[in-house]
Amino acid sequence: MNSNRSLSNTSRHNGCSVSGALSVSAFIRDAVSIVHGPAGCAHQASSLFHSTMIANERFDIPYIYTSALLEEQIIFGGENRLRESISEALSYDPSVVFIIGTCISETIGDDIDSVCTDAWEVPVINLNTSGFLGDSFERGFLNAIKGASELITTCDEKTLSANIIGEKNLEFEIEENFSEIRRLLGLLDMDINIRFVRDITTEDIPNFCRGSLNIIREDPSGLLTQFFAEKTGIPSIPGFPSGTSDTLNFLEEAGRLLNLPWEEAAAREKDYQRSVFEEFSDLRGEKITFDSFGFQDADTQFFMDIAKNTGIKIDSGGTVIPIPFTAPVGTTGIRRMLREWRRFIDA
């Protein structure tokens, strides 16, 4: 058993690492994810997936398995029960099995790494989570991305394409955001190599090495950028672009990293941006104010700049515009957001 049972920094404030890890591993189609803990841990995550994915009009809810620890295993250790669960999961013929630890398995000191190194017929990978114990949704998400990367191989062939890393599979407008990145890369005559990890199989993952550029959904800490730079040597852009200037900078940075001519692409994007703001010329002179609902951590200045470009005035007595959970991606994201603003103003 693992004797590391530190309870320091325990908090439920930032969510559970189990859900964060599952938001990655469950989107590898030929993988099995086992939540090692009481059945309630898997149930909680399943409920989150069900409600969020239905809201996103996704009805193919991933299967989530559990070792379903009972009182006896919690008292005497759950490693043998985990082995039984892995054997049961292998009957579904997965290509890889991911193990997701919980508060309980961490507290009782189960040595998940040791179980994973048994002679299994497919890779069994510990995603190094421990529920709420010193972890968070974000930490589970990051650890799962790193765990899945163990399946990445090396290759000599390169294509003019990008790897999209760390899309948030429970995020609203995830497909719209991806389409915008694909559109922007198309201006540079680039394609998408792989979405890591979004609706892929283990057969897709070895192709990761064929990409020429890594684009990370967001990486404020720089951890994923550093990790993939060290692992693959592929240059990275550490975030999807938000706003007009950031979108133009995105094209320039991608071009410079790959020694591609980017000036024409940026000029075409500027024309598109002008056309977007002209589309909403009917909003000029309208008055709005922003509401963060007391918990949104958004860059209000960003939204004020968009309002200025559209000719909208910021006024405390104006129409209340809710700040979205995430900033719009690219120019098309701004267009969708302005359509929402118009609906609020016209209501």
TrEMBL record:
<keyword id="KW-0535">Nitrogen fixation</keyword>
<feature type="domain" description="Nitrogenase/oxidoreductase component 1">
    <location>
        <begin position="16"/>
        <end position="270"/>
    </location>
</feature>
<dbReference type="InterPro" id="IPR000510">
    <property type="entry name" value="Nase/OxRdtase_comp1"/>
</dbReference>
<dbReference type="InterPro" id="IPR049939">
    <property type="entry name" value="NifE-like"/>
</dbReference>
<dbReference type="GO" id="GO:0016163">
    <property type="term" value="F:nitrogenase activity"/>
</dbReference>
<dbReference type="InterPro" id="IPR000318">
    <property type="entry name" value="Nase_comp1_CS"/>
</dbReference>
<comment type="similarity">
    <text>Belongs to the NifD/NifK/NifE/NifN family.</text>
</comment>
<dbReference type="Pfam" id="PF00148">
    <property type="entry name" value="Oxidored_nitro"/>
</dbReference>
<protein>
    <submittedName>
        <fullName>Oxidoreductase/nitrogenase component 1</fullName>
    </submittedName>
</protein>
